[in-house]
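Aim 2 progress. For SDR family NAD(P)-dependent oxidoreductase, the working sequence is reproduced below.
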Amino acid sequence: MTRLPRNAVVTGASSGIGAAVAERLAHHGCGLLLVGRDQARLDAVAVRTGGRAVVADLRNRAGVEAVCDAADGWAELLVHGAGVGAAGPLAETPADVVDELLAVNLVAPVQITRTLLPTLRAAHGHVVFVASVAAIGVAYEATYSATKAGLRGFADALRVESEVGVTTVLPGAVTTPYYERRGQPYHRRFPRPVSPERVAEALVEAVRRDRAEVFVPRWLTVGARVHGVAPAVFARLSRRMDRRADTPAV
Ligand SMILES: NC(=O)c1ccc[n+]([C@@H]2O[C@H](COP(=O)([O-])OP(=O)(O)OC[C@H]3O[C@@H](n4cnc5c(N)ncnc54)[C@H](OP(=O)(O)O)[C@@H]3O)[C@@H](O)[C@H]2O)c1
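Predicted structure tokens for this construct:
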């Protein structure tokens, strides 16, 4: 087990998983640079964790640069927690929603990692991507799935080509404002939602153990394995589960 880095950048720190990760890292004595858009919520996390708040909109280049400028020469751990969701048939998804998902979930993490890589290398640092089990393809979340699969591929390449630690965290459903924000509640029977604190605990443990990937809950790994060896079987099972998902969760 390795020691945790001393300084960490956490995007998406103003809410949900990112806020829980910030609290957990603060508990371990990490210095924090907290990134989000909502000043009041970000300041509240900064007070609880002793971190420094950086308000930045990751939809645009200026926001990405603000994060990189603040973290340059300092960051040892980079946690990409910011993300947005969208649900519905692809043909009915507005173009600007597709643009936002690609920008926040994929382009921003790629650009921030690219810019901060020399800093992370010098610190023998670590990058964490909060992807999703949707990386293996979830119906009616095609664009979201694409961004998370993109992160996973990016992480896999980076793990081989760089000298920094790289972890991808793939949660199932998590009890955060995410579903309310995307405008459609979670309606599946399983996976049952877990708390953001549980994801944060798994994430920090994965960094300490330098794990490549961690699914939360862990049994979701089974779905990923089936997808890996038999994607057509996986698609058939997913279709069947989607029909059952019309029944409300108990
Ligand atoms: N909840 C789930 O079931 C679930 C499952 C799997 C994966 N995930 C992933 O986990 C990550 C965190 O989601 P969450 O569940 O914690 O949701 P959340 O509570 O809605 O938090 C999302 C975070 O992303 C930030 N964000 C969104 N758009 C941004 C933008 N344009 N610029 C900068 N920051 C932006 C938000 O900042 P502001 O609030 O300040 O705008 C917030 O801090 C996401 O990548 C999500 O895809 C979530």
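Residues 25 and 48 are 12 Å apart (CA to CA). This observation will guide construct design in the next reporting period.
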